[in-house]
Specification:
Blueprint (H helix, E strand, L loop, with lengths): L2 H15 L16 E3 L5 E3 L8 H7 L6 H7 L10 H16 L6 H19 L8
Antiparallel strand pairs: 1-2
Helix pairs in contact: 1-5, 3-4, 4-5
Amino acid sequence: MNKQEAFDKAWRGVVKQGRKSRDERSGNGECCYKLVDGNGAELRCAVGHLLTDEQLVQLGGQNPSARALAAIFASPIVEGVDRREEQYFLHELQKCHDNVGHLAGPQFIKEFKERMTDLAADCGLTVPADV
């Protein structure tokens, strides 16, 4: 997927789930690429929505930084950009999710969309019109 497609997929995935992919059981409440919460709901962070199940298995339960993902996987996650640009983009996507001050609800969605809108402007992308 290209950068716009990746942005759209991350935006739509996080907005649809309506909350952070954050492991409250870990003790430190770190954000995760993918987790199943106590109610059985699958949650993914912004970058997690871009990863295939095969890539998640390859991580082996580890939760490396988004910048490290480009070095871990042989194939790019975002196509049409060099590895440095891919690392930057994934890191910024991760920050849009992880640095929101709210865990869920309208305030989470509002702040996430604001951060993503800023990222879109920085990267020359557009925000999805249908969400």
